[in-house]
Amino acid sequence: MPTDKPIIIDLGIMPERILPFIPKERMICLYTSDEEIERLYFFREDHKMILDVINLTSNPAATIANGNKNMVRFSHDVRSACIRNGIKTLERTPELSAEEQFKLVREHFGL
Description:
Elements (H helix, E strand, L loop, with lengths): L27 E5 L1 H7 L7 H7 L5 H25 L3 E5 L5 H12 L2
Parallel strand pairs: 1-2
């Protein structure tokens, strides 16, 4: 792994699994509000294949509600673990534009 530039990892994983490889100063945890997860997660273009499968279930609405509940809980777990481990966190909100998020990430990494 490079040591002279940030490494961007886009995945849902507990930070303890990555901390042995990447120092916390080289990480930032971006997370989304519960409401945004529930409103958007299964309806994102990159999750279309998941929604296609959900729509084959006997009760798609209940499946989405249950999936959202689990996604929100996992988001809380990851965010809490990041805070506990001293990793910078940033909540993505509809009011925070992509440009503003990018600026905050650059500032964190000193870019």
